[in-house]
Every structure is written in structure tokens, then in C-alpha cells.
Amino acid sequence: MDHFTYKNGLLSAEDVSLADLADRVGTPFYCYSRATLERHFRVFDEALAGLDHTICFAVKANGNVAVIKTLARLGAGADVVSGGELMRALAAGVPASKIVFSGVGKTRAEMAHALDAGIYQLNVESEPELVALSEVAAAKGVTADVAIRINPDVDAKTHAKITTGRAENKFGIDWDRARDIYARARDLPGIDARGIAVHIGSQLTDLEPYRRAYARLRDVALDLRAQGHDIQRLDLGGGLGIPYNEEQAPPPADYGAMVREIVGSLGCHVTVEPGRLIAGNAGVLVTRVLYAKEGSTRRFIIVDAAMNDLIRPALYDAYHAIVPVEEPPAGAPHLPVDVVGPVCETGDTFAVQRHLPAVKPGDLLAIRSAGAYGAVMASTYNGRPLVPEVLVSGGDHAVVRRRVEAEEIMAYDVLPPWLEG
What we know:
- The chain is an alpha/beta fold and 421 residues long.
- It has twelve helices and 21 strands.
- The termini are far apart.
- Helix 8 links the parallel strand 11 (191-197) and strand 12 (233-235).
- Helix 2 (34-47) packs parallel to helix 9, helix 5 (108-117) packs across helix 6 and helix 8 (208-226) runs parallel beside helix 9.
């Protein structure tokens, strides 16, 4: 469920017309619904009732500080994968005690930042990283709370570019090496390896891969305890999918029941790290039609948003529903069109032969389910500005990231001395 509905013939975010926002901030722009963000968080939190747990929002899905703060006020923590994301989480008011630092390539500077902040946990993904963290922590005279991420060799049955739990993926340590790695961690100064982490992928629409991964995690935890390791924490990752098109995503309640069934008896604190599930359907990208072009074999609708604003269709062949901001008349005919952007790439395509009601230059379209991996993955390709982000709350709205114009971006370029003058 989301809070983007037609009211008085116009698509609205809660009680704010997207057409009015387009007039105020220009197009393209992202719009997020506070009510949808909050609802999705609460539904997921309720699904884990009865477990000692923390929901750490995956900042990589949407790094806007206002979005993170909205969730932090509900009690959310943060899952971060860079020093920049750690800065964003702290700036948004997420307590350090609710921040998990994941990722395969943490620098020593990032480790030091995390230790200085006093975060809840660093998820270590390789033996060299474990040694490096030990050296950083020992030099500071502190102890790093660590969960070691195991790779369970489970196929998440999702897109190849967002699966993370197979043996050939770069993530985690082979599950059958857990004994050796934890034994090494016990002997290293500055390391307290009290947790186990796992993450098998993103946009999962089937619970069975989770079931197999979590069962393996449970078995590893029991084995490590038998070896004398005090395993107190389980990090279950994120990745639960949303319905972009006709996918039947599992209800959070079913996910929660499965988690309780498999690991509930271990008595561990459980961390889960949803991102897309909370933010995906809480956002849209609003774009204006520039031209309608009749090709020899198809009709093109050319819009002012592009792949640099929302790269998921180009990168993952991802489906996003596209709807007119002005509500079409009941029974209006729908015709097949390609919805494309202005960037000089054939891949700059949002939809191929999508059946839409008739639209003309100047009309507004909303690209739905764009609240996750949208603005956060945007670039300035083709010298294009970074588009604004707007957060709506009831009848109020605020620009929570302004448009970053091309002139500002170009100001970062510096001519070498031999080209000056």
C-alpha cells in the first residue's frame, strides 16, 4: 500500500497534487510520502514482534537525510556501507548504538570513523579485513564489536547483479570456514566477534532462499557455540522484495514468522536491514513529456527524466509502472509506446511497448516505485543536473534536496596551469 492516489482528477502524494509540485519545483523531481515510509516501517516492525530485534534501514536504498530521520524517529537504526552513509545516518539522528557498517571494502579511515562513533557493529567480510580492523582498533585502544558475514552459498533466485549469497559472489566468508575464522578472531586484539551476519540478495519474492540461508546460519551459530564462542547477535540482512509489476512479494508477517521459526530459539538479538521494502513504493519520479515521436515501427514518448536520474531500467532491465498525473477518463484507449529519455544512449529507456493512455507534450507522468535506488544512484551523465527530492507529509511538502544545477557541478572542474588563460 502507498499514499499516491488520484484526487480531483490529479495524482497526489498524500494531500499534495503532483501537478502543483511540478509547477513549484520543476521537472523531473522525486517525491516521497512520509505516511508510506512510516506505514512500511511499522508493518515490518510488527512482523518481528516477540523477537529481540532492531530494524536498520539500508541507507544505500535512499540516503536522503530527511527520509532517514523520518524512520529514525520511529526507532529505526541504519545499515551503512561507506563513511559517507555513516555521516548521513548520524546527521539524521540515528543513534550510533543502532548503526551497522557492512560492505566488503571498508578503508582503515572508515573503520576508525565507525569506532570513534561507537557504532553497534561492524560486519567483517574477509580475513584480511578482520586483521586490518584489529590493527585499527588496537591502535586506538578499543574493542570492535564484530559480526562475521558468512556466505551461505544459497541462490536467492533474483537478478544476477543483486544476488549476494552464492559462493562465486564477492560477499562474505565461505560458511564452512566459520570455525577457522572465528578462532582467528578470538586471538586478535581489539576484536569481539559475538555475531554472525548473512545477506543473500535484493528484491527476493520467495521466502525459500531465506529459509535455507537462515537454517545454515542457525547451524553455524550452534556449531560456534559448541566451540566456545559466545554468539549473541544475528544479522539477517535485508532484500525482501516489493511488487513493481505483478510480482507476489511475501507479506512481512510471513517473513517474520519464518524468522521466529528458524532462529527464534537461539536467544540472539536479531538485526534486519530492509531498504527497498520501506522506501521503494514510498517514492515516485515525476517527469514531463517533451515530444511524441512517430517512428517507422513504434511511437516514442520522450520525457525530461533520463537514465542518469533513474538508472534501474537501464542497469537491471527493471520494470516501473508509469501513469499519467492527470487521471485518464474511464475506458480511455491505451496504446503501446516506448517511454524514453533524452540521454544519448539506447539504454535510456523507461518502458518498451508499454500500453498507456494518450499523452501529449507538456503532460506529466509519474514513474512509480522509485523511492529506492532512484535518486541515490543518480549521476550527472551528459552534464545533466541532479534533480530535486521532495518529502510530503499530509498537505505539507518540503524540498529535501534542491536541484544541483549544471553550473555548480562544473565548478568542481579545475584547469591545469598549462590550459589557463
